[in-house]
């Protein structure tokens, strides 16, 4: 869309305003309909914002021209801002998956082993359908609905309170509830409602939703609650967040309590005696799946005793006390039309299958990952067969599957239908983008472009990573904009983002003439960039895009080093495989040799290093948060030895880590505390020599607050 010809508001006469307003209003209304009703925006948020700002400015100058029905007065006016954010009082976790009966048995074994329960000790689980919708957390205070938020990234979700209020299954006030009650569950759409909605949309010439999950998500995330109200959403409660008083002592009673408070809970929730019983219930639910009238994608098992759930606690993103047993993925046959090679930020050449589009589980699939060249060849580097050793050739009929939200994969190849002229795939030995040699390191299945920063594909992918949500997260600068700026030569590396205004501030004129940009959005972008000059250490380390350094490991590095200076100095001085800086790096729990080598070599590469220095010159890096300091063991390095009698080693370790302590396997000068049970041997001796405090299990429990 081109920008309307604009006279500055100050210079606008009333006659000009009168002439311009109807077209402005028409554009805003068309954009509203496209966005709210069709879920298919036709103009960018920035353009929409600019239109609305102009209308508001004209109305402010000529109040007599403003109508009561003006779009500036309508709900849903915060389109540009989107939803507000809500920080969850307690993080919203996801679930680990099991795909086979064996994995369910292993789950039971791991729970028993963590808790130190014998294999014949009684241990109950609940089993209930896993609803395929989107999760929602609803907060009640003194029985009144206060707010409702989507899961978001688990820590912060979107404020969808007004939309949640329109859902019949969600009470807006509850009698006899604890003062603080956060109810969590799944928003979903029934098959019947989904079909009816799609028929309605189709009759009105609007787009169909691909599946009920998308329809539910699109409906809940509507900026206009009136639209949500017109969409038939439902809600099953299955969990909770913050509570001022416990709901019950067991999962099954807690669910019953949620039901008595006025929530819908799933009628197929059952108490099971152990794995055999759980698997039997899984089969029963699977058999009913087609007739339930709503989508489910597996069965969730949860330890029934809530005291045991507390002891089991959480890994970084999933509880130890629950698992989702997924149904087998749906399969479909289609033809492989070609193989495209994508180049990632670390130079990895990733082959992607181009497929004749086919519907799998309600979603049209037109490409699938082919992982790497061994995968295409049907044998891994050790010679082990993949898909029975069948290679994949262009022209082949292949069977594709989707499991949850993951990218489609290839399950099988039909050799009987292989075209006669199909030839084995020749994996490129040079980068398709920059022509540099692409090599495979020993033991690595991935072939990588050696072009480094000179490879445009790597540079762009690095930039996309840099601005991504868990990294710098710059409003208005997403993957699409980064690509555009890169192509124009305005941003070649992360540091360029922070000199953009200095170099192109005057070029706003140039920017605003491009699709998706107006003067306001350009100014907003500069403001959003300026805001991110101050950045938490963890985000910066993650944003650098160092191979093997994900969000979690970036967090561990940040916590360990505390400041950018300390991290940078240590990495500059570190040698791979030796020396005190290397030993210190490798001593971090969760940092292995592969990750450590990758970080150290990044700082050794001159070009990379110079690029990092250019970037950090523009930043003020916040110190990492210290580990929880409200516990007497936080920040301490603890070693457990001998036999623990009241808890297992795994439980003791998890508890110590949850309290901010670091657990190490061996005693050294860095050890602060040795917890020694009966039978402690050489470690206790060494601790005594080093004058390290030694306590027994009971003293540890007193210190760490028991189980
Ligand atoms: S329990 C701390 N129960 O599945 C555990 N989740 O893959 C909280 N889901 O994010 C989740 N049905 O959105 C639980 N009966 C059920 C569920 C369920 C669907 C969703 C939920 C979660 C996702 C994890």
From TrEMBL:
The keyword RNA-binding does not apply. The gene is ligA. Its EC number is 6.5.1.2. Coiled coil: none annotated. CDD domains: BRCT_DNA_ligase_like, LIGANc. It catalyses: NAD(+) + (deoxyribonucleotide)n-3'-hydroxyl + 5'-phospho-(deoxyribonucleotide)m = (deoxyribonucleotide)n+m + AMP + beta-nicotinamide D-nucleotide. Keywords: DNA damage, DNA repair, DNA replication, Ligase, Magnesium, Manganese, Metal-binding, NAD, Zinc. Its cofactor is Mg(2+); Mn(2+). DNA ligase that catalyzes the formation of phosphodiester linkages between 5'-phosphoryl and 3'-hydroxyl groups in double-stranded DNA using NAD as a coenzyme and as the energy source for the reaction. It is essential for DNA replication and repair of damaged DNA. Zn(2+) binds at residues 431, 434, 455. Residues 628-701 form the BRCT domain. GO terms for molecular function: ligase activity. This is DNA ligase. Pfam families: BRCT, DNA_ligase_aden, DNA_ligase_ZBD, HHH_2, OB_DNA_ligase.
